[in-house]
Amino acid sequence: MTEVEKNSISREFEEELLTNIIPFWVKFSIDGEAGGYFSCLDRNGTIFDTDKFLWMQGRELWCWSHLYRTIDRKTQWLEMAAQGAEFVRKFGKTPNGDYYFSLDRHGKPLVQPYNIFSDCFCAAGLAEYGRVSGESWAIESSIETWHRIQERKANPKGIWTKQISETRPVRAMAIPMIQIWLSQVFEGLIKADSLVPIVAESIQSVLTLHVDQQKKAVFERVLPDGRPPQGMEGRLLSPGHALETLWFVLNAINEYGSPALSLTDFSEDEAISLITEAMLWTILRGWDATYGGIYYYLDYEGFPPEKLEWDMKLWWVHAEALCAFLLAYKTTKKKVFLDWFEKIKAWTWNHFRDPEFGEWFGYLHRDGSPALLQKGGKWKGMFHIPRALIECMKMCN
Question: What's the CATH number for 170-352?
Answer without folding.
Answer: 1.50.10.10
